[in-house]
């Protein structure tokens, strides 16, 4: 009778590693995509990498300071475009578009100037600037310096007069009437002081 040999002992750690090695084979792992689509998806992935890979590497290589400078340029261009559009709109807007409740038939420059004085006394400086500006335009029309009409624009009057004094007065009027800037006492003082000079210059033309 032959002798019975004991079974060789099995190292549990070695057995576990062997099992993990076997199960790591592709045959025992589910495919991330259905088999019919695996090839086309791989092809598409290679095409995307070939197109966007260099672009991504180029973008990633650009310094943060370059991006900051580019953003500043974009912001500056947008601001310039907005300011330019606003100036064009103001220049072509009627010079008497908003006059703070002045009646349509209020075409007497002397009456408008008295109303401007009253508005100043009441502290309504915005209205005073608008009233005195309209009175000045009416007086320019009376002298034949401009062809006055309710829709006349500051741009048209500037071109007709070529007066630095009028340009300053028109700039204040536009800022108050269209730009929303509150009028201040120096604005009304300048209007009262400068309009007679504008009219005098226009009379010599």
Explain the overall architecture.
The chain is mostly helical. The radius of gyration is 41 Å and the shape is rod-shaped. Helix 5 (125-142) packs parallel to helix 8 and helix 7 (164-177) packs across helix 8 (185-203). Residues 96-105 have low confidence and may be disordered. Helix content is 68%, strand content 0%. Among the domains are: 44-91; 109-203, no CATH class. The protein contains eight helices and no strands.
Tell me the Rg in angstroms: 41 Å
Number of helices: 8
Helical fraction equals: 55-70%
- Any low-confidence stretches, pLDDT <50, length ≥5? 96-105
Strand content: under 5%
DSSP E strands, number: 0
Form type: rod-shaped
> Can you give the mean pLDDT?
75
Instruction: Spell out the helices and strands N to C.
Output: HHHHHHHH
Helix and strand content put the structural class at: mainly alpha
The end-to-end distance, rounded to whole angstroms, is: 144 Å
Largest sheet: none
SSE diagram, text form:
Elements: H1 12-23, H2 35-61, H3 64-91, H4 109-121, H5 125-142, H6 154-161, H7 164-177, H8 185-203
Helix pairs in contact: 4-5, 5-7, 5-8, 7-8
Keywords:
205 residues, mainly alpha, 8 helices
Question: Short description, anyone?
Answer:
With 205 residues, this protein is mainly alpha-helical.
């Amino acid at each position: 009778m032959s002798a019975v040999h004991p079974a060789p002992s099995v190292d549990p750690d070695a057995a576990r590693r062997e099992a993990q090695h076997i199960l790591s084979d592709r045959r025992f792992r589910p495919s991330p995509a259905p088999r019919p689509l695996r090839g086309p998806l791989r092809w598409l992935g290679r095409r995307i990498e070939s197109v966007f890979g260099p672009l991504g590497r180029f973008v990633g290589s650009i310094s943060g300071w370059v991006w900051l400078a580019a953003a500043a340029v974009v912001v500056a261009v947008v601001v310039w475009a907005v300011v330019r559009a606003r100036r064009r709109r103001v220049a072509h807007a009627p010079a008497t578009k908003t006059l703070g409740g002045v009646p349509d038939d209020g075409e007497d420059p002397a009456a408008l100037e008295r109303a401007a004085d009253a508005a100043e006394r009441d502290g309504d400086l915005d209205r005073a600037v608008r009233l005195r500006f309209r009175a000045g335009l009416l007086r320019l029309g009376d002298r034949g310096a401009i062809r006055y009409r309710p829709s006349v624009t500051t741009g048209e009057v500037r071109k007709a007069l070529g007066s630095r004094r009028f340009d300053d007065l028109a700039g204040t009027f536009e800022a108050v009437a269209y730009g929303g800037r509150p009028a201040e006492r120096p604005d009304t003082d300048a209007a009262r002081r400068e309009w007679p000079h504008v009219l005098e210059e226009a009379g010599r033309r």
